[in-house]
Design a protein that fits this description.
262 residues, Rossmann fold, six-stranded mixed sheet
Length: 262
Amino acid sequence: MSEAGHSQTVSLQAISLSKHFGGLSAVADVSLDVHSDEIHAVIGPNGAGKSTLINLLSGDMQASAGAIMLDGRNVTRLAAERRAGAGMGRSYQKTTIFQQSSVYQNVRLAAQAHSKAPLRMFGSAMSDVAVNDAAHAALVRTGLASRAAMPANKLSHGEQRQLEIAMVLATGPRIILLDEPLAGMGLQEARRIVDLIASLREGHAVLLVEHDMDAVFELADRLTVMQDGRVIASGLPGEVRTDPAVRAAYLGAHGGADGGAA
């Protein structure tokens, strides 16, 4: 865990964010910020509103009230693809890769989709050097370069998660949203993903939604805890761990980091 400080740039900010479904408030008046070179984890029990929050931030859902600022720009009403173009990348709880395509093709397609180069009417798209370089760099950073030619459906579950992160990195994001990246993993695969997520801190602002408390307390520079759609605590991990409201709602009576439902 790095020494996060208030001098860091605020890359992503939610201001009094709410989402209503009829009479139900899935997210209610939530404010948080994610700094550059920081991992900010959001935790809470089932039904806390974590997935809705990340969907609001990414643009997959539109907010009922409040504002979302990306690098100081109000993106509250921008569609997901425009937020991606502005520097936001995200992974999903469920795998979102092209199973029959190669690892390299998956990453290259992600890079191509976010390329600012004009669409070529003639010639192979594979000749775009910048896109190829972005794809290769993402594979190297995620440890998948040796798997580049392998069909994505031949990867292990953990490697498929690595591939999803590689696809995010290939788009050149400054802000990365990770939605339960460790779900369904064994210990060895989870260890690789934890190390990979830790490496993303350098050069990015990372918002992590995760249920594995051991991983969360290892990775997070700051924590926000949600319950029933609201923030009940936010701060440094040591502060949050000992907060009485958090202990009662989520971490258990002794404030331990022994896991729980997300």
